[in-house]
Amino acid sequence: MAEADKGAAVLSQDSRRRQTSWSTAEAIKGYIRDHGLTSGEPLPTETELCEVLGVSRSSVREAIRTLASLDIVQVRHGYGTYVGGLSLAPLVSGLVFRGSLNQDGTFGTLREVLQVRIALDLGVADELAAHYRGTTNSALRALVTQMRAHSRAGESFAAQDGEFHRQLLAPLDNTLVRQLVAAFWEVHTNVVPMLGIPRAADIDSTVEAHDEMLDALEAGDAEAYQQAVLRHYAPLRNAIDQALANG
């Protein structure tokens, strides 16, 4: 057989193997749905899956690897395979990688991430204002105080910022929104250091905007909250726009 024919045969074999693996992965997802399994519940053993699905052991193993990379299943060595956390981790990983391919792509990706974060925060204003109206929130105020101290010391306050947003959105009756906010915050946090954006002179306004957001929500003022959200993101948005303009 000619070398070209051998190469084509190998590619064809690889393609068939990928197709089989993918169809097996879809079958496993169907099994999870059909049996009403939820996160943390065990799947049948590898041997049982082979019998139930009518596929080879190698197809099941490859499918499990694929599903594990998507957090649809979790392999606990020595214990078995379980339904995964079904998190948005693959989305985060993909966006971070896309942003790392080149600097122009990174700035563009970060601007898109920022636009989504802003849209999500603005979209929940009414629900948050209704929940927080008339309340006091010492734990959130403490996080703002910590952010302020780190900012004045020229230090990162990413951890406190992330915790602030996580706690602020915790009362939302929408798990997907909370997961999306957390996912895009993680992309943001991972991509920003790649850019080398200098600390903006008005970065302190980002910290103070957190206080203003909380003031507005405790007053039940959704519109004031939305304005504070825009002030919160303004320094980074301006830095990204300037970087893109200079690029």
UniProtKB/TrEMBL annotation:
Domain HTH gntR-type: 18-86
Domain of life: Bacteria
Alphabetized UniProt keyword annotations: DNA-binding, Transcription, Transcription regulation
SMART domains: FCD, HTH_GNTR
PROSITE patterns noted in UniProt: HTH_GNTR
One MF term in the entry's GO annotations: DNA binding
PANTHER family: TRANSCRIPTIONAL REGULATOR, GNTR FAMILY, UXU OPERON TRANSCRIPTIONAL REGULATOR
Protein name per the record: Transcriptional regulator
Protein species of origin: Ornithinimicrobium tianjinense
